[in-house]
């Protein structure tokens, strides 16, 4: 079945460092791909998405490009801030109904 | 309210007891989803409602789990004869219409602990 694999954390970076969180997927067909973020004490919220191959999703300085040839959707940010500390989840849509299949999550801690 | 609301935020119960978890979605959202998140794992899909009907309940782990949405708004997840393995955070999400690219809005979850 469809699945998502993302790099295990935790990831600890200094402020202004470059961030990459790897995500690869297995799916039949051409799913939409998502990154969700969970800040401490808050619910999951959509960070960015891409709906077809070569699309780039971007938001709040984060970017991810839908790579069909490598079945990847890696999350990047050029300069992280302390406020980016959160758990990041890669996900794909599991069907036409919008239900999502999530990776296990990667916890990011950014130190000042 | 402005977002998805879930109650209770925390529930501690004893093995064998019955539990209800409530979700109040964003007003006007027709699609509602329940997920379960165990420690160190990503959310796992349980059930999807479109309006009042359960359009997909393939993620419910067994017949002890049941969910309803009688008026197409508030939903209740019901767990009978709870087991220690049911301990997890239960997340509710809603979406304006459902579908492949719609954004899901999540509540903060209900943390269930079965002793």
Main sheet of chain B, how many strands, which sense, barrel?
Answer: 7 strands, mixed
Looking at how many chains there are and whether they match, the oligomeric state comes to: heterodimer
What are the secondary-structure elements of chain B, in order, as H or E?
Answer: EEEEEEEEEEE
Helix content class of chain A: under 10%
CA radius of gyration of chain A: 13 Å
**N/C terminus separation of chain A:** 41 Å
Number of helices of chain B: 0
Number of DSSP strands of chain A?
A: 12
> Total strand count of chain B, please?
11
Shape of chain B: globular
- Ranges of chain A where pLDDT stays below 50 over 5 or more residues in a row are none
Percent of residues of chain A in beta strands?
Answer: over 45%
Describe this structure in words.
The complex is a heterodimer of chains A (112) and B (115). With 112 residues, chain A is mainly beta. Chain A is 0% helix and 49% strand. Chain A contains no helices and twelve strands. In chain A, the strands form three sheets. In chain A, strands 2, 5, 6, 10, 11 and 12 form a six-stranded mixed sheet that branches. Chain B is mostly beta strands. In chain B, a hairpin with a 6-residue loop joins strand 4 and strand 5 (44-50). Chain B is globular, with a radius of gyration of 13 Å. Chain B starts with a strand and ends with a strand. In chain B, 36% of the residues are buried. Chain A binds chain B through residues 4, 31-32, 36, 41-46, 49, 51, 89, 91, 93-105, and chain B through 3-4, 31, 33, 40-45, 48, 50, 55-56, 59, 91, 93, 95, 98-109.
């Amino acid at each position: 079945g469809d699945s998502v694999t993302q790099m295990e954390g935790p990831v600890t970076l200094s402020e202004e460092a470059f961030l990459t969180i790897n995500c690869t997927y297995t799916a039949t067909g051409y799913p939409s791909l998502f990154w969700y973020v969970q800040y401490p004490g808050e619910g999951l919220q959509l960070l960015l998405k891409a709906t077809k191959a070569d699309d780039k999703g971007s938001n709040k300085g984060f970017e991810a490009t839908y790579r069909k040839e490598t079945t990847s959707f890696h999350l990047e940010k050029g300069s992280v801030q302390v406020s980016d500390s959160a758990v990041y989840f890669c996900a794909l849509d599991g069907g036409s109904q919008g239900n999502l299949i999530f990776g296990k999550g990667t916890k990011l801690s950014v130190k000042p | 309210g402005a977002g998805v609301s879930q109650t209770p935020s925390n529930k501690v119960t004893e093995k064998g007891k019955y539990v209800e978890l409530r979700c109040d979605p964003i007003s006007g959202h027709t699609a509602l989803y329940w997920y379960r998140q165990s420690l160190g794992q990503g959310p796992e899909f349980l059930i999807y409602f479109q309006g009042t009907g359960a359009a997909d309940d393939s993620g419910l782990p067994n017949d002890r789990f049941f969910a309803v949405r009688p008026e197409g708004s508030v939903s209740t997840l019901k767990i009978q004869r709870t087991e220690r393995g049911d301990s997890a955070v239960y997340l509710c999400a809603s979406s304006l219409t459902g579908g492949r690219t719609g954004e899901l809005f999540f509540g903060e979850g209900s943390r269930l602990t079965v002793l």
